[in-house]
Amino acid sequence: MFPFFYKFRENLSLIFSIRNIILQIIACLITYIIVVSGFDWFYFKFAQVSSLTQYFSPAIFLGGLIPIFGLPIFYIIARQIKHKNLLVITWALAQSAVLAWIISAVYKAFTGRIQPPHSVLIDTSRQWNFGFLKHGIFWGWPSSHTIVAFAMSFTLISLYPKRKDIFYVGIIYALYIGIGVSTRIHWFSEFVAGAIIGAIIGAVVGKSFQTKLISKL
């Protein structure tokens, strides 16, 4: 398990460096603006009456399946073909995904944001249960799907900063997951915050693993 913990403490520390804490505070401020402006509720209602949910509904499942099942499959393939770079990528993605989920769970444990309504359209966009474990760690702010997707995408982008194809594929994947969950199970502000925090995590982890690469893909 050693490759998974490569620079784990250092990366966790860097994620909460002064610069990155400021960026996370900005994510909080953006959330506040979106919530008090009423845009969360406006966007959610629009998503329900438009075709957004139809095109983006697979994102809910893909956002969970790819980190949980995709990474182990990727690891097995990398081991079978004995490709060191693919192994490095797998461990980097795994570390960023786990860090992203843990950090989002901690935030959720203290913010207690109420999720969008599932049936009757009742505005719950301004309801929070600040405290500790007042609304669990699986719902709320920020979006776990989004933060994990952006963390994984920016890990790849940071590992190969000159590869435009990786950049575009990574961004498209992360946006699809983030926008997708914001039309069904998360508020728009939770997607935005998850994108910012996830990008921070991915950039930190990707740069730390970059020295482990031995060649270009």
Commentary on this structure:
With 217 residues, the protein is mainly alpha-helical. The protein has one domain. The protein contains nine helices and no strands. Helix 2 packs antiparallel against helix 9 (188-209), helix 5 packs antiparallel against helix 6 (84-111) and helix 6 runs antiparallel to helix 7 (144-159). The radius of gyration is 17 Å and the shape is globular. It starts with 7 loop residues before the first helix and ends in an 8-residue tail after the last helix. The mean pLDDT is 92.
State the main characteristics.
globular; 217 residues; mainly alpha
Would you summarize the structure shown here?
The chain contains nine helices and no strands. With 217 residues, it is mostly helical. It has one domain.
- Main sheet, how many strands, which sense, barrel? none
Q: Kindly state the mean pLDDT as a whole number?
A: 92
What count of domains describes the coordinates?
1
- Gyration radius, in Å: 17 Å
Can you write the helix and strand succession as a string?
HHHHHHHHH
Overall helicity = over 70%
Give the tally of β-strands: 0
Q: Tell me the strand percentage band.
A: under 5%
The computed structural class is: mainly alpha
- Extract low-pLDDT stretches: none
Per-chain topology:
Layout lengths: L7 H8 L2 H20 L1 H11 L2 H5 L1 H24 L2 H28 L32 H16 L4 H19 L5 H22 L8
